[in-house]
Predict the structure.
Amino acid sequence: MDTIVALCKRRGFVYASSEIYGGLNGFFDYGPLGSELRRNIRNAWWEDMVHRRDDIVGLDCSIISHPKVWEASGHIQGFSDPMVDCKESKQRYRADQLFFAPVRIHDGQLLTTGETTLETDSVIIKGDSQQSITGSITVIGYVSAIESERTNDELLDKAKDLKRKLGKRGELLALEVRDMTQVQPGEEKEIPSPATGKPGSLTPPRDFNLMFQTYVGALRDESGVAYLRPETAQGMFFNFKNVVDTTRVKLPFGVAQIGRSFRNEITPRNFIFRSREFEQMEMEYFIHPEADWQKEHRAWIDWCKNWLVSIGLPAEMLSEYDHPKAKLAFYSRGTTDIMFSYPFGVQELWGIAARGDYDLQQHIKHSGKMLEYFDEATKTKVIPHVIEPAVGVDRIFLAVLCSAYYEDVVEGEKRTVLRLHPRLAPIKAGIFPLVKNKPELLARAEGLYKKLKRRWNVFWDTGGAIGRRYRRMDEIGTPFCITVDFETIEKDGTVTLRERDSTKQVRLSEDELIAHLSREIDGV
C-alpha cells in the first residue's frame, strides 16, 4: 500500500489536503492526474447507468437539506459508531476496529483427536472441540491492535513479547480475538491502549454521531442547526414525487445521483478508502411492491460486478458477501456487498441493498406528504419498494490503482506501469515528435496533437529520449504513445503507435489511428 500512496503523491494523483499546514486527517485533494481519473470513473458510471439505459434518470441534490430529512431517515437518532477513547493519549478509536485478546498459556499437554491440530508457532487451533488440555491455563494479560492488514500478526507478536517480558513458561494458546464492541464487564481495566500499551486507559464504548453539524442563517442556536449530508440517497427519496410528476418514468425505474458526502469518521484509515469527505455514486431502483425483489436484487448485483470488470478490475479480485439476517437493519430484506481484495485485505467496494419501502414511508410519516405511484395496470396507488446499489468513487479509484499497478522489465530495464483501462486513463495518448530540431516534423506532430486534443485528453512531450518518454507515460497509465518520425514526413505519412501493456508498435495512417483510438477508448 505504501507503494501506491507514494506513486499517488509523486505523479499527482492524490495529495494530503492542506499539506503545507500539516494536513487534515481524513481529507484528500486530487491532483491533475487524480482529478482526471476520478472524472473518468464518474463519467463511465453515469454513461452506463443513466445514458445507456431507458429506465433510469439523474438527479443532483444540494449537500445541505432540511434537518427533518435526517430525522426521518434515522440519521440523527441512530447514525453513530461506538467509539473508545484512550485517556492517556487522547486518541479515539472505532470500537469495531480496535481488537484485543487475552493471552493464555498452558503448562501441560494439548491432546488432540480426529482432524484437530495445533500450530503452536502461529498459535492457531484448527478443527472441532475434540481436544483436551492437561495441566493449568493461565491468563497472563491482554494485547490490543488497531485493524489493519496484519492485525492478527501484530497481536501474536505482542502476545509473544508479553510472555517473554513476564518470564512465563508454557505454550501460548490460540488467541481468541474480539473487537471492543464485544468487551465483557471488567475486561476494560485489563486491555492496554494501542497508543500507550497501558492497561485500563481505554474508556468503555459509547456512541458517536458521524454527521457534521453546521448552521444555516445568522443565528447560532437550535433553530439554525443543519447537517452536511452523510449520504446522497435521501435526496432521491424526498424528490420521488417530483421525479414522477415531471418525467414519464414507469415502474420499475431508477433515480441516480453522484455527489459529495461527509462523515465524521472516528479513525479514517487506509488512505482514501475511509475518509471524512468522499464522493458517492448511488442509484435507487424503485420496483412494484409485489415484484420479485430477490430477482431484481440479484440482477443488480450482477450488473454491478459486470460493470466493475468492464472498467478493468480483475474478476478474480472480486467476491460477494451476504449480510447475515441477524445483522440486517430491521427494514432490510437483504444486502450483498461486492468485495475487493485491497492490499490491506478484502473490503467492501459496492453495497447492493433491498430496502423495502422503509425510506418512502418514513418521509411520508415525517412530512405529511404522500409519496406514491399510480399503477396504471391496477388503477391503484402504491408505495414502491427499492433496490439500492451504492458505491464510493474513491473506493473504485483506489481499487483501480491497486489492480492496475505492475512492475516488469522492458529491454532490460525495470518499469513501473499502471495498466489502466483506456476508458479511465487520465491521459489517453502521448504525442511525441522524434526530434525537436526539425521544424517540419514538429509541425506535423503538433497538428496531430491539436486534432486529437479536440476529442481526448492527450499529452505533448518533446523532452528526452523516446524510451524515457515511454516510461513516463507508462507510470501514469497512458495506454498509447504516438511518435511522429522521419517516415511520417518523408514517406507514407504513417505514425508509430505504441501500446502500453505489450509495448508492441505498429504503423498507422492518421485515419487508421483515429479509428483505432475510438475503438479502444470509447468503444465505438
